[in-house]
Structure formats: structure tokens, C-alpha cells
Amino acid sequence: MTAAMVGWAHLPFGKHSDETVESMIVKAATDAIHDAGISPEDVDEIVLGHFNAGFSAQDFTAALVLQANPALRFTPATRVENACATGSAAVHQGVRAVSSGAARFVLVVGVEQMTTTPGPEIGKNLLKASYLKEDGDTPAGFAGVFGKIADSYFQKYGDQSDALAKIAAKNHKNGVGNPYAQMRKDLGYEFCRDESEKNPFVAGPLKRTDCSLVSDGAAAMVLTDPATALGMQKAVAFRGLAHVQDFLPMSKRDILKFEGCSKAWGQALGDANLAIDDLSFVETHDCFTIAELIEYEAMGLTKEGEGSRAVLEGWTEMDGKLPVNPSGGLKAKGHPIGATGVSMHVLTAMQLTGTAGDIQVKNAELGGIFNMGGAAVANYVSILQSMK
């Protein structure tokens, strides 16, 4: 165990035109420090996850965390970015700072404000997480990229519309109980399965209910070493973690395999001396339902081409053998890019401390997290376990 979470905070995700990147950073950072029971003076290092890519006019945002308290002045602060995995990049950077002995307490914050950007610009900004030489003119932006992936998957393995609708319906049902989720509405399988005026096709076989939400939000945590964590009110340890980076061009790899995801899971599980079946639940990156489907295969839950079994046979439901996205995932919770990975870790820590409320997984002991940037380019896996 290299580091542990000892405090955290999570703002509601959604459309927050009355907030700014700065105000959300300040709220999340302040709440996380308070939750950890430490003083701002105790923070040795700050890591901020903020994708931006044009969403915020204010760039160079790392030092904005210092606005949370004057005592944070002169604390080293760094902004990290790795597309949609920006939040986990920040978390892993914080873990490295603690495990190396460079810092005793690290404050990690993830933030994004997307909804104040005009619609066409949102698509353009998100498409920057793809390889523009090949995908820069893709209709429907990043949804179009995953629409092409879904088309290819359907051509190879058959129509998966039932499975995608099941994934969407499952995650929206789970999201009803998540107070931080942007959409707390059980849409039902039929609504997600059928094309309609309210659920039109967006790209390829992907409908609106197959696509994650554009969101504003922030989340934060305090990390420390395991020995220090044992003396604190709560402690959730990193039992395994891995970061695997793959080629950016999809033309250089078999995009239906998510090989970087598979390797990251293999490394993290090996680090933790665990198998996928040992986990109590998983929070995985469902930016689009086709992504969650392929991730079932990449994490080793099913064989290649058989991901649909996991959802159609109920394995990934809240009462299944491996609940996936009990939080509602990006589908229901929302996907403020820089905050997403931090959010996944915070909600996993809540599960493992029995404080997840209406989304609590029964007897949760080990939680797995997969957060990716781009189309399985930046792949981060964390395996968490409560120390108390």
C-alpha cells in the first residue's frame, strides 16, 4: 500500500452557471481539508486536474487552489492533464508524491466547467482528445469517434443495441440514489432502447442515452502515507494502481480490444495480488455505453465479443456478481472532464467506508476504478481498500 485517502469532498455535478472554475476549486479543496481533519498548513503539495482545452478562459489554474486558504500560499501546486483521465492523472501524481516521501499530505483537486461554452465549441474542445490528423473532421465530434467504434463492433460481433440500452438504463437507475449526479432519473430500458424525438441517434448506432453528459463540477481528496492514515478518522488505501498509455491514432491499434485498458487492469490487479472476481464493485469510464461494453471484456469479466453477457445476464447490476457503476457512472453522474477521475475515487472511498447512502454496495470491501482519456489512450486503474 503506497498511499491512502483520509479526507474527501464532492460537489454536485450539473449545470452551474453561477459558479466558476475558481469557486468550485475553492469549495472542494476547503471541504476536503476539513473532512481530513487537518489544517491548510499541513498540506505539503497540491495537484490539480483540469483539462480545459478551451472551456475556461482562465488557464494556468494550479495556483487557484491557494485561494481556498491564505495558509496554502507558497505550497507547491501543479496542474496535470491527460484528456478525460485528467482526474486520475492528478490522483496518481499525488500518490507518487506521498509514496516517494516527498510529501506527507497531498491535496488533489479535479475540476471542469463545460456548460458555459456554446454547444459547437464543446464538441470542438472534446475532439482535441482524439488524433486530429485522422479524426478532426468527424461528424458529431467525439461522439462520432465512438460511433465509429460502435459500428465496427456491431459489424464484427452483431447488433448490440439491446446491451447498450441495458447499460444506459442500469446506470441511470443507479444514478437516482446519487446526490451528486447530474441526472437522477430512472429512464427505463424501453426509453433507452427505442429511437424517439427525445432520444434520437447521435452518431452511428449511438443514441442520446448512449452518451455521457456535459457537466460542471469538482471533487477533491487528501492523501497521506499508510502509517499516518492509521491514526486518522478514516483511511482508504491504494492497494494497486497502474497507468498505461497507448498510441493516439486509432489506426495504429485494434480499437475493439482496448488493449491499454486490459494491460492497466492486469498490472493493477497483479500489484494488488487480486483477480477481477475479488472486487466488490467497479467504477468504470462509460463516456459512451459502447465503452463500458468493451471495458467488460478488457477487464477480464468476459471474453472478447461477449461483453453483452455481463449486462444482459445481470452480472453488473447492483445485486449482481460485480456491480459496475453503482454511482450511475458518467452517464447519470455527468462528466466534467478534469473532475471525473477524482470523483470516481471519492465515490469509491465512500463505498468502502460504508457512507455511500442510497448507492451503497452491500459488503463493499474492494473497489476497482478505470478512468480513460481519449479512446482507450490514457488508461488508469486504481484498486482501493479500507484500512479500518
TrEMBL record:
EC number: 2.3.1.9
Keywords: Acyltransferase, Transferase
Gene Ontology MF terms in the entry: acetyl-CoA C-acetyltransferase activity
InterPro entries xref list: Thiolase (IPR002155), Thiolase-like (IPR016039), Thiolase_C_2 (IPR055140), Thiolase_N (IPR020616)
Superkingdom assignment: Bacteria
Residues annotated as domain Thiolase N-terminal: 9-224
Domain Thiolase C-terminal: from-to ranges: 251-385
Name the record gives this protein: Acetyl-CoA acetyltransferase
Native organism: Roseibium alexandrii (strain DSM 17067 / NCIMB 14079 / DFL-11)
